[in-house]
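A.,

Following up on our hallway conversation. Structure tokens first:
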């Protein structure tokens, strides 16, 4: 069954059936203020930390048809009483004549028709403001006049979100609501926890006069709370109770008497949900958003932001589905992951204070550097603040307080307390930022390390370059019996938690790529001494990987604390891991023949119609010494599931060896656009990438989960733009090195780079995968494949002719990947 369609002209996905297989969401605002909206208008909203400043109660484990966080009721007055329904479908579940949920860029618009009433509801958070605006238009599309009321409702949670679920005594005692009348004599219903009433005041108000209100859930539902959200008792009374709750489950319900609407007549209401410290000081802002023109202007500003953001990179390839993702939804998802890390999603609700992941955000930020590089730099700086003096990094931290922790490593005291890969990702992020912007001076910025003295002052600071060098040195020294990096609690694969002494082949390869990046950086900085030193480090690790880790047809993934290989033919379960193959190519460690063989093993043993599995075969039973991977059934998540984050790395590896057909084929098989025709199997939103899909060892093969906040977004975007289309920022210019399907006759891409706009047309008359014969910039031939840096605020026409195939390998085997 189809549930919607892509509207590329308006940059939306339009849901036409609210009964999606699972909840589908969209993000509004940012971690500073915002959250997500589901396809029936339910919301989870926070200001800052989702664990410590949650505003709206949203419990996704409830049935899909239950009220979640926020809704709107309409009430038609007739001779026989009231007809009450929600134009958002949930929670009344009335049969609709028309339903459309427009999933837009930073907004959701729901258009519905019930009982002759058309409702349009625009939901967004204005740029640089702290409020959810809902612009509601109610139109009588029947042939008769109708007398109608509108009752918007929100349900609050305690600011300490986890307490709401774990302490049924203390929380209700502290929740209070109070009606406030502002200077314009409009009613503003406020809510606060008793202890925070002077600092965190939630408010809910409207642009239309209200006749009554309710702030207590039990009173609103009626019958001592035994009535339901589907049919609240209070909505069958003329007015709400005007009760100011002193405890209990706080809500905000506002009664609007819209009055009689003649056929074709419309009325508009604008509601605001926000948080402030002083209602009188907030009055001026509230007053502005009561005016339709101001709301329209704020919405236009939001649309302008996204238009400017997306225009930084625009593609036109023969693959329409690829264009849909690369021009709209993929870069949008990259920005959302940059904003939220893994802090507030439908699957990670921020209750436990997971906060910002160091590894997560260091990868996420690389997906937005071509669009908003300075926002990326700000996030990179924040990450560097939680790097330790020894070069390792804290695993996650709270963005508001900058307090960090070791993540899941805290929960297993018999395992090491650090992750072996966290600190290395930041090197890639910093280098990518400098390549994109040319801001070399950033390397000189002083940033304190994480450790504090007894007065909570940083013990030591270092410039950005020093931070990167310490990342290198930590891994160089932290090695095991095979000269490979020690695993720590885990590497990128969080679920393989081996006893102390285990070694990680993944981290060895990540270290290799990081060294390559640092060698390039130091050469650019004309520091040949350090570059040569890092070349020695690189060759040493390369030798160890190839000496100890090649298993005949693929690379092993780990050595356990006894020196036994995991991800080897010797293992009956977990025999092969995808990341050991792709990353041995990405690092440049794998000689050409081994690279081809390792990738062939991935294709033969790991690939499925829905994507590449992370490992195979799956474990079937819990094994404590293997860790979390064995808690999943075979085919789920890291245990033989299709963990999408790792799929782009195989695409990159295939592009590096020149296989554009397979790189693009792997891209297409996980493109969510194609899932739009198989939603009842896939279930997730078709407009963003999920974290995982169940693998072919699982009975529900093809089922997706954990959408939006996934490292898949950044890496699939980088794989497509930098490696398949081959547009790569470098320190000295824009490198053009596409690796595309032979069937493509070419493609176009526009990229803004260093204050110049490059309109690039790539022509492939001989139907090859890779090879650039010539490049012409503004009718001038360029020597080689590097477009020079122009920085002149002008447009430049770039013609790229493919036709001279780059040799698959050179006489120096180690250079084949370049």
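Then the amino acids I'd put at each of the 818 positions:
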């Amino acid at each position: 069954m189809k549930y919607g369609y892509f509207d590329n002209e308006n940059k939306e996905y339009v849901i036409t059936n609210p009964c999606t297989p699972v909840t589908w969401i969209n993000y509004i605002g940012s971690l500073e203020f915002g959250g997500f909206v589901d396809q029936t208008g339910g919301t989870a909203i926070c200001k800052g930390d989702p664990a410590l400043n949650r505003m709206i109660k949203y419990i996704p484990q409830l049935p899909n048809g239950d009220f979640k966080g926020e809704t709107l009721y309409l009430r038609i007055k007739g001779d026989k009483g009231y007809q009450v329904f929600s134009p958002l479908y949930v929670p009344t579940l009335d049969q609709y004549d028309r339903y459309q949920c427009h999933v837009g860029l930073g907004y959701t618009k729901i258009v519905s028709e019930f009982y002759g009433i058309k409702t349009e509801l625009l939901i967004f958070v204005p740029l640089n403001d702290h409020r959810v605006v809902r612009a509601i238009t109610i139109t009588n599309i029947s042939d008769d006049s109708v007398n109608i009321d509108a009752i918007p409702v929100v349900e609050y949670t305690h600011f300490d979100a986890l307490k709401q679920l774990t302490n049924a005594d203390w929380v209700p005692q502290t929740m209070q609501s109070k009606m406030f009348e502002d200077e314009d004599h409009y009613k503003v219903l406020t809510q606060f926890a008793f202890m925070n009433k002077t600092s965190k005041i939630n408010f809910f108000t409207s642009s239309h006069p209200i006749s009554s209100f309710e702030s207590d859930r039990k009173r609103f539902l009626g019958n001592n709370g035994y009535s339901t959200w589907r049919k609240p008792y209070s909505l069958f009374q003329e007015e709400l109770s005007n009760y100011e709750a002193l405890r209990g489950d706080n809500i905000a319900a506002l009664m609007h008497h819209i009055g009689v609407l003649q056929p074709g007549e419309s009325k508009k209401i604008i509601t605001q949900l926000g948080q402030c410290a002083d209602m009188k000081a907030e009055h001026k802002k509230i007053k502005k958003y009561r005016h339709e023109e101001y709301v329209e202007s704020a919405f236009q500003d939001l649309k302008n932001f996204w238009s400017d953001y997306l225009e930084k990179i625009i593609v036109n390839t023969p693959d329409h589905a690829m264009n849909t993702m690369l021009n709209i939804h993929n870069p949008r998802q990259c920005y959302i992951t940059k904003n939220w890390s893994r802090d507030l999603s439908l699957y990670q609700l921020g209750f436990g204070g997971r906060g910002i992941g160091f590894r997560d955000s260091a990868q996420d930020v690389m997906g937005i550097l071509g669009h908003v590089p300075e926002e990326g730099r700000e996030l990179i700086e924040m990450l560097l603040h939680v790097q330790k003096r020894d070069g390792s990094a804290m695993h996650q931290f709270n963005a508001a307080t900058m307090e960090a922790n070791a993540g899941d490593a805290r929960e297993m005291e018999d395992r090491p307390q650090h992750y072996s890969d966290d600190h290395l990702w930041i090197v890639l992020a910093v280098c990518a930022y400098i390549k994109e912007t040319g801001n070399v001076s950033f390397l000189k910025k002083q940033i304190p390390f994480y450790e504090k003295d007894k007065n909570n002052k940083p013990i030591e600071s270092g410039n950005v370059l020093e931070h990167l060098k310490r990342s290198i040195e930590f891994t160089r020294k932290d090695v095991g019996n095979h000269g490979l990096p020690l695993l720590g609690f885990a590497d990128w694969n969080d679920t393989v938690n081996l006893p102390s002494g285990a070694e990680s082949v993944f981290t060895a390869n990540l270290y290799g790529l990081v060294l390559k990046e640092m060698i390039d950086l130091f050469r650019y900085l004309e520091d040949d001494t350090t570059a040569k030193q890092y070349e020695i480090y690189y060759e040493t690790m390369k030798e160890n990987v190839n000496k100890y880790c090649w298993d005949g047809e693929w690379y092993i993934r780990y050595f356990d604390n006894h020196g036994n290989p995991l991800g080897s033919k010797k293992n009956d379960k977990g025999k092969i891991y995808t990341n050991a193959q792709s990353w041995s190519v990405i690092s440049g460690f794998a000689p050409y023949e081994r690279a081809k063989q390792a990738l062939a093993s991935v294709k033969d043993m790991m690939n499925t119609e829905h994507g590449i599995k992370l490992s195979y075969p799956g474990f079937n039973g819990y094994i404590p010494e293997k860790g979390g991977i064995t808690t999943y059934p075979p085919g789920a998540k890291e245990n033989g599931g299709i963990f999408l984050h790792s799929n782009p790395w195989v695409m990159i590896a295939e592009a590096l060896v020149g296989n554009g057909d397979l790189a693009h084929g792997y891209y297409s098989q996980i493109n969510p656009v194609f899932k739009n025709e198989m939603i009842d199997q896939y279930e997730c939103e078709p407009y963003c990438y999920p974290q995982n899909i169940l693998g072919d060892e699982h009975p529900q093969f093809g089922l997706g989960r954990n959408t939006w906040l996934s490292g898949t977004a950044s890496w699939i975007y980088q794989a497509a733009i930098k490696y398949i289309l081959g547009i790569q920022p470098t320190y000295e210019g824009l490198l053009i090195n596409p690796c595309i399907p032979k069937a493509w006759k070419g493609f176009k891409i526009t990229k803004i780079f260093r204050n110049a706009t490059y309109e690039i047309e790539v022509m492939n008359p001989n139907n090859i995968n890779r090879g650039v014969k010539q490049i012409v910039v503004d009718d001038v031939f360029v020597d080689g494949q590097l477009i020079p840096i122009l920085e002149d605020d002008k447009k430049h026409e770039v013609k790229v002719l493919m036709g001279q195939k780059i040799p698959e390998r050179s006489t120096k085997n180690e250079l084949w990947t370049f």
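Residues 4-308 form a domain with the Beta-galactosidase; Chain A, domain 5 fold (CATH 2.70.98.40). Curious whether your intuition agrees with the design.

B.
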